[in-house]
Amino acid sequence: MTDDPRQKRNLITLKKALERGGFRRTKAYKLIKKGKIVAYKMEGQTMVDADSIDAYHMTLPRIEPSK
Question: How far lies 58's CA from each of 6, 44, 52, in Å?
Answer without folding.
Answer: 24, 29, 10
